[in-house]
């Protein structure tokens, strides 16, 4: 029986069979899966092996190398120092193999493969989701996994194919593809909130207000609100009783009258039109720079990935 050594899954693993004639002999690839999963049961399920067979494979690899690769207890499995070094050595090779097998989709009638994207919530909802409706209807063999994260993710280290962030946040050594125009922003509060607080006439008056903030995971700080003052952009941290890591919860809290929210304008337009929210400081609130898809310049673009890039590319 031919085994899949790694599977296309949320861990960013690759798909390929063991070398011909090797079968379940002590190859290091199965060990990498165990090291990533830190659990023999989960790794065995992923590899299509029994737990005892997988344990024997790893044991024979350790015997062949003459070093302990995994520290085992009754409850956990973790790589030793030698095991960590082997994982670091093998990971680039696995990714190259992953890409090589993905490239074979060029010889298929329809592009196929899995694409992993890290994106902020707003871009995933307003740009990626509509693009996927069109893309996946035409190319059903393409799989796309979108992980929402506001942190500045290293797409290479974290095994993503690409990331989505504001243009100003993309590193210079990355290829960047614009996905959106600049993003109008709005500061809003509910009528019940403004029954208790006066409308601010300038950003300085926000010190007397209560903000509903977005917590950024990379730094742990609250997202700054941007304003234009005397022709230059300033960034202000507005204090308040609430912080969330999703804009949906921030919007709900603003509608509930719990404070002011700093939101993309298109997310609150209907609420403003219906009177559920009031917009303030419109003339002082500049747009954010547009979102960009970014990926390593050395990345070889598979047909599936190229189609995804074109699907999300901004066209004015």
UniProtKB/TrEMBL annotation:
A GO molecular function annotation here is: sequence-specific DNA binding
What range(s) does the HTH lysR-type domain occupy? 31-80
Q: Which Pfam families match?
A: HTH_1, LysR_substrate
**Key words, A-Z:** DNA-binding, Transcription, Transcription regulation
Q: Which InterPro entries match?
A: LysR-type_TF_proteobact-type, LysR_HTH_N, LysR_subst-bd, WH-like_DNA-bd_sf, WH_DNA-bd_sf
Q: Which domain of life is it from?
A: Bacteria
Q: Which GO terms describe its biological process?
A: DNA-templated transcription
**Per its database record, what is this protein's job?**
Transcriptional regulator of the ttuABCDE tartrate utilization operon.
Similarity annotation: Belongs to the LysR transcriptional regulatory family.
Full protein name:
HTH-type transcriptional regulator TtuA
């Amino acid at each position: 029986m031919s085994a899949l050594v790694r599977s296309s899954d949320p861990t960013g693993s690759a798909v390929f069979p063991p070398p011909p004639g090797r079968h379940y002999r002590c190859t290091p690839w199965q060990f990498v899966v165990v090291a990533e999963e830190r659990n023999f049961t989960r790794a065995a399920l992923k590899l299509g092996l029994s737990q005892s067979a997988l344990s024997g494979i790893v044991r024979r690899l350790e015997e062949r190398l003459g070093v302990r690769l995994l520290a085992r207890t009754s409850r956990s499995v973790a790589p030793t120092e030698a095991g960590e070094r082997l994982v670091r050595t093998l990971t680039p090779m696995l990714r190259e193999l992953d890409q090589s097998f993905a490239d074979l989709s060029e010889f298929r009638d329809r592009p196929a493969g899995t694409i992993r994207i890290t994106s902020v919530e707003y871009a995933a909802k307003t740009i990626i989701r509509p693009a996927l409706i069109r893309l996946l209807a035409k190319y059903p063999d393409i799989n796309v996994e979108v992980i929402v994260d506001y942190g500045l993710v290293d797409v290479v280290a974290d095994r993503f194919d690409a990331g989505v962030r504001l243009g100003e946040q993309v590193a210079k050594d990355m290829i960047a593809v614009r996905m959106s125009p600049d993003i109008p922003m709005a500061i809003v509060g509910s009528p019940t909130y403004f029954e208790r607080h006066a409308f601010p006439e300038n950003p300085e008056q926000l010190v007397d207000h209560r903000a509903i903030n977005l917590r950024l995971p990379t730094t742990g700080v609250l997202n700054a609100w941007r304003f234009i003052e005397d022709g230059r952009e300033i960034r202000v941290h507005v204090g308040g009783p609430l912080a969330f890591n999703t804009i949906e919860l921030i919007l709900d809290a603003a509608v509930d009258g719990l404070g002011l929210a700093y939101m993309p304008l298109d997310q609150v337009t209907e609420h403003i039109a219906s009177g559920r929210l009031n917009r303030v400081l419109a003339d002082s609130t500049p747009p954010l720079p547009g979102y960009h898809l970014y990926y390593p310049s050395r990345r070889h673009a598979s047909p599936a990935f190229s189609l995804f890039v074109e699907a999300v590319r901004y066209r004015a």
